Amino acid sequence: MTLQEKLLLDVNTSWLEGVRQIASPNFDARPPNTEISLLVVHAISLPPGKFGGDYIDRLFCNRLDKRLHPYFEEIADLKVSAHAFINREGGITQYVPFAERAWHAGVSEFNGRQCCNDFSIGIELEGCDEQPYTDEQYLALAAVTRILRNHWPEIVRENIVGHCHISPGRKTDPGPLFDWQRFYDELEKQNKGAGA
Fold it and tell me: What is the pLDDT of residues 62-82, one digit of tens each?
């Protein structure tokens, strides 16, 4: 069974079934009558350029010990979380129900609309600007995106962007080595395979 066949979204809770779940406190309700229409792709590695470990879980749950690395002194007190995270092996962790507003984008704008957190879903890839992403990450990102688009059809291709696109000059992720065409191709392949 493929990942896209295994992934299911509980429509009552907006949690993915069959993935690792760690509840973050860093979210709140979306503004009333706000439709989810944007998917933001991020990248994160902690410490910068290093992969593995549980530092990202700790950051998103406000438990990152600033004494463990000099860089952590800058970020340990931030109250942030993406909705979900995909590690280098394609493993998915969800931190915030997709229907809720995760605090992932910060100061941002898309098509003239400020505060992208209000109407977006944020997915972090374990990565950085200097290293390519893995095959498993493209597969997992496409699988999650397909599920999200089934439930929120306003997330069309034009409404899938990088953090760099909604916060230019402030953010660079997912970086120059993220292959957008490869992601679109994988998404299309999975859509055809699912009969979408």
Answer: 999 999 999 999 999 999 999
Q: Say how far residue 105 (Cα) sits from the centre of its chain.
A: 10
- Rounded to whole angstroms, the Cα distance separating 128 from 112 reads 28
Quote the strand ranges of 1-128, DSSP E.
8-10, 15-17, 20-21, 27-28, 38-44, 84-86, 92-94, 101-102, 109-110, 113-114, 120-126
Please list the helix, strand and coil fractions of the chain in percent, rounded to the nearest 5, in that order.
30, 20, 50
pLDDT in tens, 150-170: 999 999 999 999 999 999 999
The catalytic site residues sit at 124
Q: What residues contact 116, with CB distance under 8 A and at least 6 apart?
A: 38, 40, 105, 108, 109, 110, 166
Neighbours of 18 (CB within 10 A): 10
| Domain boundaries, given as residue ranges, for the chain | 3-193
Task: Output the pTM of the full model.
Answer: 0.96
At 75-132, the pLDDT tens digits run 999 999 999 999 999 999 999 999 999 999 999 999 999 999 999 999 999 999 999 9
Count CB atoms within 10 A of the CB of residue 194: 14
CA distance 34 to 81: 20
Class of domain 3-193: alpha beta
d(CA 80, CA 103): 5
